[in-house]
Amino acid sequence: MELFANLALGFQTAVSPMNLLYCLVGALIGTLIGVLPGIGPVQTIAILMPTTFSLPPVSALIMLSGIYYGAQYGGSTTSILVNVPGEASSVVTCLDGYQMALQGRAGAALTISALGSFVAGCFATVVLAVLAVPLSELAFKFGPAEYFSLMVFGLIGSIVLASGSMIKAVGMIVLGLLLGMIGTDVTSGVQRFAFGIPELADGIGFVSLAMGLFGICDIINSLEKKQSRDILKGKLAGLWLSKADLKASAPAVLRGTLCGSLLGILPGGGAILSSFTAYMLEKKSSRNPESFGKGNIRGVAAPESANNAAAQTSFVPLLTLGIPPNVVLAMMAGAMMIHGIQPGPRVISSNPELFWGVIVAMWLGNAILVLLNLPLVGIWVRLLSVPFRRLYPAILLFCCIGLYSVNNNTFDIGLTAFCGLLGYIFHKLDCEPAPLILGFILGPMMEENLRRGMLLSRGDPSVFFTRPLSLGFLLAAAAMLVMLALPAIRRGREVAFKEK
Amino acid sequence: MRIRHPKDFLSGLMFLLFGAAAVFFAADYDMGSSARMGPGYFPFALGAFLAALGGTLLLRSVFWAQGSRPGPVLHLKPLVLVLSSVVLFGLLLRPLGLLVSTTLLVVVSSLASHEFRWKEAFLNAAVLIVVVLVVFVYLLDFQVPVWPSFMAVRA
Amino acid sequence: MRSLFTRLCVVVIIAAVVGLFGAGMPSAQQIKGPIKIVVPYPAGGGSDVVARLIADKLKDSLGQTVIVENKPGAGGRIGTEFVKGQPADGSTMLVVNPALFVVAPVVFSKLAYDPDADFAPVSLITTYQFCVSVPPTSTVKDVKGLIDWIKKNPNQANYGSPAAGSLPHFFGLMIGKAAGVEMVHSSYNGSGPLVTALIGNQIPIGVDAFDAQSAYHPDKIRILATAGTTRKKTDIPTFTEEGFPDIAGVGWNAIVVPAKTPKAVVDRLSAAIVKAVKAPDVVQKIQSLGNDAVGTTPEAFSATLKKDRERWTPIIKASGFKAE
Question: Which domain holds residue B128?
């Protein structure tokens, strides 16, 4: 079997003591930095990349992918413990993970996040090894029409993220789309809503927005409550998962893994959508969807697995085609180029030891991470026993320094404070921020593909309906809209009856 | 006329204002046609939709809402203190360096807590400064000014 | 300890020399370190890689610590504006390209810097070529075929570039001009998405930097021609060879310093950079990135800049492209 020969070659490369060490160091550093609130994988890799320049290429890539996964693990930890998502995919982890932490079940949330990610990582590594080349063809089927319809589908689905009024959820999505328009328009190169501020030419940074709407806003809200927030003291029992937890989350992990493995392959929106989609699937398929957003363990297990599976399979376009599907992988591609390796279809044939070595190292990295993280769970949870009055200034501080480091610019710090104010207003008005975040991320891509689709078809909108994949997404979106609207209308009536 | 759902009313107002602002500014950009959409097309349409949505929410809260719900309760102290501590940090990091701005951030934000104690806040600031120096400056080699700019030797 | 002692000695000697020949005047021979090369883009990009390669060599020839600092934002304009305000003593250099120095002055009505008044040229370090390519399933086999195809199918004559307002964007307009057809331009969010669209046959023509497309096997992307004076690959002709000498132009990376930097310092930096760029291992690494190592005097860079402005400005103006 060629596959086994290839994997053997990969193991040979990755399991040298030096490379194992780099893998471990990368995973460890990635976790530690990822844990700092406000620093997600993107900044972590940007910060640490120069340190890998002096290493041999394989070791450098192994270390970088270790950092990537480590930062993702670390980012989930921060989402669960202090409600600060380091990147788009951990936004949904906040929804239930943080609630679990508030209920004293942070240990269980962290454990399932680590285990789920590991299962997903193992599965996705196999997918990557076996199907990398055929799967890469999937990305070519996606033209502007398909991307646009996929975004519509994702946005309609994101209504599920909110538990309150549907009309407000739609409003928040549209507001998010509009916030995403700020900055340089991809299609025309024109700066919109930037008001002459050069820092706004690249738009609002995701980190600023997420940190303001989630982290800072949550700190302010906790301070408003007169009683101290240290409810976690003495309730740290249950570090490990209960049987019920396991039973609930095992299928969720599997669904999330599948979902993430598939979506991760799409360049652009795929990896971001994966954790959202997995969460929506869980909530929609659950018998009591109301329990989501209030600490349902499935709401942590599914998106965390999806997120990690997608992180793994998003290497497919990079390694097979040389197309970096997201910012993190664009930096990895840059790192490969620094080492004189042109990422792309030739990597498999010209540097097989590199290709398979990295794939095996990914799996090893995941294994190391789970070993590393399970004992750490206890330490992280203990972090929560630090009195809140001492903890929150630290969170604010780390956020600020992290923000500064992204662009060596203090503008982002001010912007985050502004987003915190927005988040506060949203919270007071019962407008939930998660749909806004998804709109913010998908908005620019959706507009770009809508405009490109119309441009290339010379203004004929039928392209969106005549291409089968695109039509499929649109039909699914319509079906979902009906599904969402029906219970909302019914519930509205019930409430009306009760109040009469 | 009484507003029964103040939160819905205010949300509607907020969406309406954001939508109107988007429409107002997007009108300045080239609209193009649906075949060749200009940079103004999509935000204009979104803004109009958001404004309409906000208007609906607003009217609904006045005319069609059943029952009545409490309005939002605001506590300005934590809001102002936490946000201004962050803004201060941003403004002072460059001129005054990490040590001064960290201390200010920690102390000002700590003021927002009802369990505030001066001594503890300063102690906390001191501990965090050590952590920041070790982690960010020493280990990660961040390009952050540590000392006030007038004291620093150009490094 | 010895190195500290040596450094102390150097400092004392410099202080003495500076004291003798007038305090505050930067000496022609010694540049105050550490020297920063500011890259106005995120780490890992093309110009960042080149800057790091050169920084490594400059350390030895200048005898100073040379660090690369990334100051990304606003398509490079934030970093450029930042360097404008840095001390003009040779301790801060900036990596620039045609987008910042040729295109931006034309398309921005309010640009926070003036390429000529705020900066002094040091050296042009690398060039890269543009190429035009088609999907593998396309019936078009060469440039002539492409021009014919555009003439026959003006309604499908769409081309993609990696960004609106980039040189490939305007380069594509030259091709349309040669065919007498106003081609529809669609900008992608970088080379990656453009390549995907080309391979998947979502767009019929792509214009991009050669190095971004050359990594693909001809059965994925068919490159019709490159735009330089010489062939980049033996089996891919240039536009001139194909009979279209008007379709020309190359991209470049160059180094500039704040305008008031003394001429002696500029010349010393320029000489050191030329030496670094021409070091065999650097040449080889730059080539593996798909670029060509050049290394010029400040005057030669000035001349190229002037020529490029004459070439591109009318095309950009005619396109009606405005960023604000």
Answer: 76-139
Instruction: State the count of interchain CB pairs (< 8 A) between A and C.
Output: 141
Instruction: Identify whether residues B57 and B80 lie together within a single domain.
Output: no
B155 part of contact set with chain C, CB < 8 Å: yes
Nearest by Cα to B23 from A426, A445, A174? A174
Which of C216, C207, C211, C200 is closest to C315 using CA atoms? C207
CA-CA-CA-CA torsion for A39, A43, A45, A46, nearest 10 degrees?
-150
Task: Evaluate whether B47 touches B23 at the Cβ level (below 8 Å).
Answer: yes
Q: A228 to chain B: which residues are within 8 Å by CB?
A: 115
Beta strand C119-134 with C222-226: parallel, antiparallel or unpaired?
A: antiparallel
Q: Which of C142, C98, C129, C99 is nearest to C214 (CA)?
A: C129
Chains in contact with A, counting 3 or more C-beta pairs less than 8 Å apart as contact: B, C
**More confident of the two residues B125 and A341:** B125
Q: What is the mean pLDDT of each run of 10 residues along chain C (324 residues)?
A: 46 45 43 83 78 86 84 85 89 93 89 92 93 91 92 91 89 90 88 84 91 73 87 86 86 93 92 92 83 91 93 89 77
Q: Which residue has the tokens 């020493």?
A: B138
Angle at A297 between CA A293 and CA A303, to 5 degrees: 80
| Same structural domain, B21 and B60 | yes
Q: Which architecture does CATH list for C30-125+252-319? A: 3-Layer(aba) Sandwich (3.40)
Q: Measured between CA atoms, how close is C307 to chain A, in angstroms?
A: 25
Smallest Cα–Cα separation from A100: which of A112, A89, A118?
Answer: A112
Asked whether residue B1 is assigned to any structural domain, the reply reads: no
Domain boundaries, chain C: 30-125+252-319, 129-226
Q: Does domain C129-226 have CATH number 3.40.190.10?
A: yes
In this predicted structure, the answer to whether residue A234 has a pLDDT above a threshold of 60 is no
Answer yes or no: is B153 within a domain: no
Distance, CA of A280 to CA of A286 (rounded, Å): 10
- Looking at the structure of chain B, the number of domains it has is 2
Element holding A71 (H helix, E strand)? helix A57-82
DSSP annotation of C86 reads S
Claim to verify: residue B80 and residue B105 sit in the same structural domain = yes
The predicted complex's ipTM stands at: 0.92
Q: 3-state DSSP call for residue A354?
A: helix
Q: What are the pLDDT digits (tens) for A354-378?
A: 778 877 877 888 888 888 888 878 7
> Distance between CA atoms of C23 and C21, rounded to whole angstroms?
7
- Chain A hits for B75, CB-CB cut-off 8 Å, are 223-224
Domain assignment present for B43: yes
Task: Please state, in angstroms and rounded to a whole number, the distance separating the CA atoms of residues C110 and C97.
Answer: 19
Query: CA A169 → CA A417, A490, A492, B65, C262, distances in Å?
Result: 23, 17, 15, 18, 60
Q: What number of helices (H) and strands (E) belong to chain B?
A: 4, 0
